Amino acid sequence: MTENNQGHLYEKYVRGYLQALSNALSEDQLFYLRAQFTLLEPGKNGKISSENFASVKYLFSYEASLNVTVFLLFIPFSDI
Questions:
Q1: 29, 43, 44, 63: which could join 25 in a potential S-S bond, CB 3.0 to 4.6 Å?
Q2: Which run of H or E residues covers position 61?
């Protein structure tokens, strides 16, 4: 199989997958999925690398640690 045929089959497969996904998910779910994909900051080719996952994981783990710290500050006042 030539590289051109493989690319065509791949595009056809992806198109079919996206069509099935859009039929199975609600509008809100599609919006959420699109937002999650955008957060991963895909490259110019539209693909996501392992570095994208690592950077998002680091970013959100840092933000979560800040939020937990703020929450822990208010625990002693909950008895008042």
A1: 29
A2: helix 50-74
Kindly report whether the global pTM for this prediction surpasses the value 0.90: no
Concatenating the DSSP letter of every residue in 10-56 gives HHHHHHHHHHHHHHHS-HHHHHHHHHHHHHT---TTS---HHHHHHH
Based on its alpha-carbon atoms, the radius of gyration of the chain, rounded to whole angstroms, reads 20
pLDDT computed for residue 11 by the predictor:
83
What three-state secondary structure class fits 1? coil
Looking at residues 10-24, what average pLDDT do you find? Answer: 85
In sequence order, what are the residues at sequence separation of 6 or more whose Cβ sits closer than 8 angstroms to the Cβ of residue 41?
A: 52, 55, 56
**Per-residue pLDDT tens over the stretch 24-45:** 888 888 888 888 888 888 888 8
Q: Please check whether residue 51 is in contact with residue 63, taking contact to mean a CB–CB distance below 8 angstroms.
A: no
Q: How many CA atoms lie within 13 A of 78 on its CB side?
A: 6
